[in-house]
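Quick one, tokens below:
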């Protein structure tokens, strides 16, 4: 009997082909993937469910070729329709700009605009993509402040172009809320919609959320909402999206399509593929205004999460490495270990702030605000100089602190820094809760 490798070769099955793999008692149908380099004795299949399974070669009786992989040609031609409004599109990477790689079973970046557009013909039923730029292609976890600045510079040019009604930015999900916060600070005097959108599932999967998200993002981009907002699935179904305020949003689930939620705020609008239902106040479009860039950023800032028994000496690391500011994500209403704990933070907090470090406090709780006047221990923390940041999200607070500390005119004294951290620049604070 021929060995298993010979069977595969005789059937001419290659990575990307649809195959049926037969074991002694069971058979599995799926797309054949490249075997992992670490274990050539495993055959990988991608199932219809989207999950990958591994089968040992020694247990396989037969691999039957069902269908060769199709090689699709990218023949999409971008058509302009003068009756439709024009938008700008900024592509940065992430799952929404990736497609399934039949050889590895993962996703790979789309390497040309034509390949991206081929998946989204419905986008062009509503708008013309007048300008498209891709300042970089990265997963969001690989981005940093330099990338936020690049996006902001491209966005500023598009927003100040009189031929463009608004912009869409495609982005990975994991750190999308950091980028949306940054753009709210970097783009001053916003005159048109700035819409960030995403997908949790790659664009060539039947369950992808990308198509609805882009359709709704297109409507948001030509609306009167002059805000940085995030547009994506409001439910797990393909029914409508929410437009969420960029500085008050957080990713709440690892894989659900409605992963993003507004925190301590209401959605701006409910968006269907054919209409927008407004839900809360927003800044109105004003194309007479000119967007101004303010992309200064101090990278020596950090986010530190407080946990039981945590030693305050961690702050010495940041002092040694010349960090300018820290966001402390505190417990509940704004607590850290104090005098009744063997790891009290009070002395160390006084020390680091005396040596010039700015320390601000947010809550680990998802909803609500910090308040140093409820418990006496929190008043002790406040007296060390910690700036309590109301209901600001920790991620937004980190970005804002880096932005504030990059302005020399605001850092001449601690009181001005406190004033700026508590000034509402882009809706990051909600005084109504």
């Amino acid at each position: 009997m021929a060995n298993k490798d010979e069977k595969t070769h005789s059937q001419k099955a290659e990575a990307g082909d649809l195959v049926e793999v037969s074991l002694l008692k069971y058979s599995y149908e799926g797309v054949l993937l490249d075997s992992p380099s670490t274990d050539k004795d495993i055959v990988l299949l991608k199932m219809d469910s989207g999950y990958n399974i591994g089968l040992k070669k020694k247990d396989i009786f037969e691999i039957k070729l069902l269908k060769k992989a199709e090689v699709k040609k990218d023949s999409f031609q971008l058509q302009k329709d003068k009756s439709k409004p024009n938008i700008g599109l900024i592509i940065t990477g992430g799952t929404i700009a990736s497609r399934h790689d039949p050889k590895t079973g993962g996703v790979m970046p789309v390497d040309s605009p034509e390949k991206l557009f081929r998946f989204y013909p419905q986008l062009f039923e509503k708008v013309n993509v007048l300008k498209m730029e891709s300042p970089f292609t990265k997963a969001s976890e690989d981005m940093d402040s330099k990338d936020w600045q690049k996006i902001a510079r491209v966005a500023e040019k598009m927003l100040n172009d009189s031929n463009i009604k608004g912009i869409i930015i495609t982005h990975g999900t994991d750190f999308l809320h950091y980028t949306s916060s940054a753009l709210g600070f970097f783009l001053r005097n916003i005159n048109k919609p700035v819409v960030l959108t995403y997908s949790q599932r790659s664009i060539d999967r039947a369950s992808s959320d990308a198509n609805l998200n882009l359709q709704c993002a297109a409507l948001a981009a030509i609306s009167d909402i002059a805000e940085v907002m995030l547009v994506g699935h409001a439910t797990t179904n393909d029914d409508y999206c929410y437009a969420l305020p960029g500085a008050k949003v957080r990713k709440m689930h690892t894989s659900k399509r409605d992963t993003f939620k507004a925190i301590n705020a209401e959605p701006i609008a409910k968006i269907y593929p054919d209409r927008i239902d407004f839900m809360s106040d927003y800044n109105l479009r004003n194309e007479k205004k000119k967007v101004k860039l303010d992309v200064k950023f101090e990278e020596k800032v950090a986010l530190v999460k407080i946990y039981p028994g945590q030693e305050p000496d961690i702050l010495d690391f940041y002092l040694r490495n010349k960090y300018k500011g820290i966001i402390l994500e505190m417990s509940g209403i704004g607590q850290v270990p104090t005098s009744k704990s063997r790891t009290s933070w009070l002395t160390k907090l006084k020390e680091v702030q005396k040596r010039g470090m700015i320390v601000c406090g947010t809550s680990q709780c998802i909803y609500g605000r910090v308040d140093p006047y409820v418990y006496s221990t929190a008043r002790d923390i406040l007296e060390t100089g910690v700036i309590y940041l109301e209901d600001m999200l920790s991620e937004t607070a980190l970005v804002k602190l880096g932005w504030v500390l990059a302005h020399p005119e605001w850092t001449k004294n601690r009181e001005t820094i406190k004033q700026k951290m508590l000034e509402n620049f882009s809706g990051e604070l909600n005084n109504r809760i």
